[in-house]
Write the structure tokens for this entry.
Amino acid sequence: MTTPPAPGKEPPMVSNAAFVDDTNFFAPSNPNLERITDVSSEFFRIRRIEINGKKTELLAINPTHNGTITYGGSQIKPQDKSKASRILEV
């Protein structure tokens, strides 16, 4: 329940924009990661949240699968081992 604005005052404006920053998914295998991204994509679709797949990075440690995953409407390839990446700007 919200309190109405005081007489002569405008109600506060509420933005409908939201930002999801630095979401990290961890999985022990490619099939597990695909399941996580499928579920999260469905959640984001239901909530009308758009994911920018072009800003998504896939980091693989000791990969057994070198294929891509689909996320945010983009095909994401694992990063080259020689490329540095930052998590939470650290």
Observations:
- The two ends are 40 Å apart (CA to CA).
- Residues 30-57+67-76 form one domain.
- The mean pLDDT is 78.
